[in-house]
Known about the structure:
Oligomer: heterodimer
CATH topology of chain A: Non-ribosomal Peptide Synthetase Peptidyl Carrier Protein, Chain A
Shape of chain A: globular
CATH architecture of the largest domain in chain B: 3-Layer(aba) Sandwich
Shape of chain B: globular
Largest sheet of chain A: none
Largest interface: A-B, 8 and 11 residues
Distance between the termini of chain B: 20 Å
CATH class of chain A: Mainly Alpha
Low-confidence stretches of chain A: none
Order of helices and strands of chain B: EEHEEHHEHHHEHEHHEHEHEHEHEEEEE
Mean pLDDT of chain B: 96
CATH topology of the largest domain in chain B: Peroxisomal Thiolase, Chain A, domain 1
Number of helices of chain A: 4
CATH superfamily of chain A: ACP-like
Number of helices of chain B: 13
Low-confidence stretches of chain B: none
Radius of gyration of chain A: 11 Å
Amino acid sequence: MKERIREVLSNLLKVKPEELKDDVSLQDSIGVDSTEMVETVIALEKAFGKKLSTKEITKFSSISDIEKVIQSKA
Amino acid sequence: MGKQIAVTGIGVVSPSGIGKRQLWANIKSGRPFIKEITRFDASKYPSHIAGQIDELEKYSNISERLLKKIDAFSHMALIASELALQDAGIDIKKEDPNLVGIFLGNALGGWLYAETELRDMYIEGREGVSPYMASAWFPAAPQGQVSIYYGIKGFSKTVVADRASSLMAIGYARKVLSKDKLNMILAGGMEAPVTPYALLCCNTYGSLSTDNAHPQAAYRPFDKKRSGFVIGEGAGIVVMEGLERVRARGANIQALITGYGATCDGIDRINPASDGKELARAIQIALSDAGIGPEGIDYISLDGIAVGLWDSTEVKAIKSVFGSRAKEIPVSCPKSMFGNLLGASGALDMIITISAMENSLIPPTINLDEPAETGLNYIGKEARPHKINKALIISRGRGGINSALVVEKGA
């Protein structure tokens, strides 16, 4: 699932997949901003077919954190 | 008398070229750049010709990540700002960000972005709209994007005053620098009106030429056969600094901005007053701000939107200020070659005027074959050698906004 999340984010934010590390927050790795986070949540909802809140996925989330949130919605 | 402020760097993105050298090479040769619009099917619009810039991304280092968040007019402003800083030899990272400002003019906002997102909203619902819409479309968006890009933190503004926007922004920038509040300012304007909705609005205004069959001959300021103006897109941004600082860093002074005046007709929503008196007053304010009389001006860059009432009142104002000298001072309207850049038009006029001073050559007004209003020394088809020490630039906006700027030759 991590790879799928990475792919969604790298396509959306136009950054290289290798810039998105599993355990480094999006803020620290690519300096994601709040508007990009809104877009990220919408894209993840579409990709995984689950309703997510912007509170659950913050800019301080890493790929691993996002994976946990999505898995918890199973 | 106001303070003299130096222009030390020029950045320009226009249908006639990217960068001041390419622009000037095309302007001095009188090359026309107005064509049929190819970006979208505009064939049903009454006026479907424009000065366009293709493949903007070829000229920029802006990342894809940023490009998807901004409209074309911000992109143009970013490219023009970078060119201006390079030309001025300024490494912005070494500047105190609190003492750098940015003053830009724009008339319409960024509609290519806005239109696309609004369409998505009506088709896909609210989730179809990019969250960047809010920060991409409005007239001050380029100011914000350039500020963020360079970390500019000083006093800054965006002026929205129709076609006079960018000349006014430059006038304000000079005022702020005169008070020694900032070290330097990026000033100018940008406009991207070649989009389906923006073009519709411009058409609704009713002043565009519909001579679509002859794009290169359509924009005929002051000519008997004039039929209105043609829009163009682009950005013109310059670096402005106080003289002490320029001398201290040994920078090249490309021109001095020495006078500025602005007035309003205040009589109609669309048209200017028919007597040209308020425009004349704006010119007089600019001249007295520069500490010179009508005899001091060697060239006038005309607003010239090729609409009877506007052109005739411009001529009236010039005659009333310059009296018997009106028939001697060379005047021209080079935007006839690439279109009226609306909120960026005054900045382009100033940039072209600075090149004209440097090269002692009056830029031509293409398509001006037989003047409708006589009594001015119009420079028509071909550029004419002429020494220019001091020039006047006139820029006007809908409803009678008048602005005038005096520039002098640099050292």
